[in-house]
Amino acid sequence: MSGSAVEAARAARQASYEMAASPAQMRNEALRILAQLLGEKKEDIFAANRLDLEKAEAEGLAAPALARLRFDGHKLEDVTRGVTALSQMEDPIGQMQIHRELADGLVLRRVSCPIGVVGVIFESRPDALVQIGSLCLKSGNCVLLKGGSEAAETNRALFEVLAEAGRRAGLPDGWAALLETRADVAELLAMDEDVDLLIPRGSGAFVRYIMDHTRIPVLGHSEGVCHLYLDAGCDPKTAANLAVDAKTQYVSACNTIETLLWHREAAAALIASAAALHQAGVKLLADEATQQTLRKAGVPCEAAEEKDWHTEYLALTLSIRCVGSLKEAISHINRYGSHHTDAIVTDSEEAWQRFAALVDSAGVYRNCSTRFADGYRYGFGAEVGIATGRLHARGPMGLEGLCSYKYLLEGHGDTVGEFAEGKRNFTHKDLR
Amino acid sequence: MSGSAVEAARAARQASYEMAASPAQMRNEALRILAQLLGEKKEDIFAANRLDLEKAEAEGLAAPALARLRFDGHKLEDVTRGVTALSQMEDPIGQMQIHRELADGLVLRRVSCPIGVVGVIFESRPDALVQIGSLCLKSGNCVLLKGGSEAAETNRALFEVLAEAGRRAGLPDGWAALLETRADVAELLAMDEDVDLLIPRGSGAFVRYIMDHTRIPVLGHSEGVCHLYLDAGCDPKTAANLAVDAKTQYVSACNTIETLLWHREAAAALIASAAALHQAGVKLLADEATQQTLRKAGVPCEAAEEKDWHTEYLALTLSIRCVGSLKEAISHINRYGSHHTDAIVTDSEEAWQRFAALVDSAGVYRNCSTRFADGYRYGFGAEVGIATGRLHARGPMGLEGLCSYKYLLEGHGDTVGEFAEGKRNFTHKDLR
User: Fold this and answer.
1) How far apart are CA A313 and CA A333, in angstroms?
2) Closest to A154 measured CA to CA, from A4, A33, A43
3) Residues in chain A where the model's pLDDT stays below 50
4) How far, in Å, are B129, B299, B304, B322 from residue B261 at the CA level?
5) What are the chain A neighbours of B354 within 8 Å (beta carbons)?
6) Chain A with chain B: Cβ pairs closer than 8 A
7) Is the dihedral angle over the CA atoms B277, B281, B285, B288 positive or is it negative?
8) Contact assessment for residue A322 and residue A293, using Cβ atoms and an 8 Å cutoff
9) Residues 6 or more apart in contact with residue B329 via CB below 8 angstroms
């Protein structure tokens, strides 16, 4: 359909004003209906998913990709539970953030409001459609959803349920739209008048491509090069447990570690970690000092190259480097990392304070796995993505990240001239 | 100097880590020294300003531009007072925004931190250098300052004072740099690895040029097309006072109105406003219905064209349009406005509620002048600019807009695997 993304974006912009003014009750009702319809229509959804799976199998899609594509009873339960939880959460819209008397009879309020129209381009997991769509709904945003083409049938079935829930609850027409083609994405990138935010979820190269081809603000992480640093004298068992969890618990997540750094006085922790990682099937690529230490300990490893320090493997591969000091570890992380999530293993309060203050990442951790960097684990209900930039949302981005605010000022004929002439004065008194 | 902006940006990135970790006491001390040096060095600053003024006069710069360029005792007092006030304000850095137990012994904190390296490109007013430089200093940001070439001598003198204050207080080298050439700006735009945010202050065309030529996030307003809407039956005297203040109190500010909308049942308010505006020297461009009404009342006006509805005059010119309903007024504002600041004159609570909910602007006002849209008037101390986008800061952007945050997570060897296997559960308990 030529022009369909353009039309969808314009319709979403028109719907955005009414959507922003919609009562919480209407949005929560839409979420409840969505949860109910997911149950009622599950056979249609599963049937659509079987079509996608058959096509993907015929095309020889790899097993991990097939697993992401599968939408079964288990995933249905997960997303339904998420939608129900969202319907019960406090309204993120209309929250008063500032309430201040500027001068006698002149009162300022800052109130949260939706961003407006959000475009989300997501990968093959069809459950993302429901998660992202329901987060946008709860926060009063209009949403343009572009899913992976492998999941086209499933996405259509799920989108129909989302749209039907909106219709039944009385949300404005056009608040949500499904985009299906690459041409739609190209059109979307040019709609900077009608789209306020793009959230691309995919490879680093894909996110950078989006950033380079649009004026629309983009939130997301280009990649996740996370580190675990073993500080001088840290506990070998803790180090090994954290290294294995952070590398192998879910190897294709952005919050897994790609590089292990160790202080030259943490050889015991390095050896314990490397042995455990090797046993878990992880290939180790190491600098010269590490290779010497691991060879003596009988742990197999190969030589790392310069490029390994900024590579996101998303695989059972880990680079390891020896550093001479905490300062060197921090410099390495700030230079080669992606400002996502980085952890230190240490018993020293002083080392932790310096690490926390100087590591420039969305998440800075002590004695725990980088895998905790996640909206659900942080207690945000869910997330639309993890942002590694420093503007607007940083880290796991939930409902709060989908909100902006506006300033409402009420007076009684107040002019700036009276203040400029010294006839009146500002009081700037916060009200409760 | 070839490569100077590149070197300045790299040096600022290096300094940014230490700057972010610097104690509030050190940054406040730098502000106190800055205030003191501004007084001690004032004759040098005034002499530098005289050179700029002589050159500008010789080149035939217009009177308003000369006024902006002048840095005299009055402006020195203003900026010094602002710097002293900043030194006494609460530290915006290190504020705990979230404090939450995720699970037994696993505690999350979200703490405010600087954005990092901020590039500011500002117009001819040299006082902006001190205001922006001191806001960045207070918020722990490194800053690259590019001022107008007309103010080159004054900017150099003021920058020297800012840099000296930083040196004496012990701030890291390179935390602030002055850029002077257009080539510097071109280099700056390519430094997306080392610059986190650009704040261009200038014409709409200039801001759009910046947005189109960089990957660095840009905050700022492309223009200020603000509206005053006279609702049915509103008080003519209030309407006229607000219209004159909002249009003429400082005609070249972005928060002045460019269009007056009036409900067809607000003819008395329209006539009173138009007469007062005409008397204040404002040229009126009106649609057909308004022309008829004003001609009968003997107020001179000319025909408006379609382009007038989205023109930022920044001059004593105002477009006027008649609307048939509140809804039509809101549609006009959302379609033609710049989402900056828009006001309604009304006694109706219902009309105000609809206007506040449906107008999609950073500031939505009732019965007061749009000229209040300003960081100082809002009680933010000062502002680096007014943002009309919906991401990160919206409206007047003060210290808060110069901050990001990071998540700090502390545990005792916690792995995600334990939770995935059901051995442990999340508690998500907010701590006080």
Assistant:
1) 16
2) A43
3) 1-2
4) 37, 16, 13, 6
5) 21
6) 221
7) positive
8) yes
9) B227, B229, B231, B261, B263, B323, B344, B355
> And the tokens for A292?
């010497």
- Higher-scoring residue by pLDDT: A124, B188: B188
Q: What is d(CA A88, CA A94) in angstroms, rounded to the nearest whole number? A: 16
Q: Which residues contact B424 (CB under 8 A, 6 or more apart)?
A: B103, B104, B418
Best of A361, A408, A431 to disrupt the B interface (most B CBs within 10 Å) is: A408
Q: What is the pLDDT of residues B105-142, one digit of tens each?
A: 999 999 999 999 999 998 778 999 999 999 999 999 99
Q: In this predicted structure, what is the pLDDT of residue A199?
A: 92
Alpha-carbon B243 to chain mean position: 23
DSSP annotation string for A368-399: E-GGG-STTTTTSS--SEEE-SSSS--EEE-T
The two structure tokens encoding residue A311? 């590579």
Beta carbons within 8 Å of A416's beta carbon, 6+ residues apart: B245, B249, B250, B369, B371, B372, B377
Q: Which two tokens stand for residue B335?
A: 């379609």
Residue A231, both tokens: 């500080």
Enumerate the residues of chain B whose CB falls inside 8 A of the CB of residue A389: 196, 217
pLDDT at B222: 65
Nearest CA in chain B to A237: B413
CA separation, residue B173 to residues A141, B9, B75, B170 (Å): 44, 12, 28, 9
**Which domains are present in chain B?**
4-220+397-406 (3.40.605.10), 226-372 (3.40.309.10)
Of the candidates B365, B318, B309, B361, the residue with the CA atom closest to the CA atom of residue B340: B361
pLDDT for residue B317 is more than 70: yes
Chain B residue at shortest CA distance from A101: B378
Residues of A in contact with B419 (CB under 8 A): 377
Rounded to an integer, the average pLDDT of B56-85 is 92
Partnered with residue A342 across adjacent β-strands are A227, A364
Radius of gyration of chain A (CA): 25
Which of chain B's residues have a Cβ under 8 Å away from the Cβ of A237? Answer: 413
Rounded Cα–Cα distance for residues B56 and B151 (Å):
9
Q: Do A315 and A292 contact (CB within 8 A), yes or no?
A: no
Is A372 in contact with B115 (Cβ distance < 8 A)? Answer: no
- What's the one-letter identity of residue B162? L
Q: Which of A16, A115, A245 sits opposite B416 (nearest CB)?
A: A245
Question: Hey, what are B389's tokens?
Answer: 């986008």
Phi, psi of B265 (to 5 degrees): -100, 25
Strand partners, B101: B107, B429
The answer to whether the Cβ–Cβ distance between A413 and B241 falls below 8 Å is: yes
Distance CA A328, CA A326 (A): 5
Of how many residues is chain A composed?
Answer: 432
**Which residues from A are below 8 Å from B192, CB to CB?**
none
Tell me if B102 and A372 make a contact (CB, 8 A cut-off): yes
ipTM of the complex: 0.93
Q: Which residue of B has its CA nearest to A369?
A: B415
Backbone angles phi, psi at B174, to 5 degrees: 85, 5
What pLDDT band is residue B1 in, cutting at 50, 70 and 90? Answer: very low
Report the predicted TM-score, pTM, of the whole model to 2 decimal places: 0.92
Q: Go through B199-215 and write b for each residue having 16 or more CB atoms within 10 A of its CB, e for each that does not.
A: bbbeebeebeebbeebe
How far is A351 from A268, CA to CA, in rounded Å? 19
* Nearest CA-CA distance, residue B411 and chain A, Å: 5
Q: How far is CA B49 from CA A319, B42, B73, B125, B131, in A?
A: 56, 10, 11, 11, 17
The pair phi, psi for residue B158, each rounded to 5°, is -70, -40
H helix or E strand, kind and range, residue A102: strand A96-103
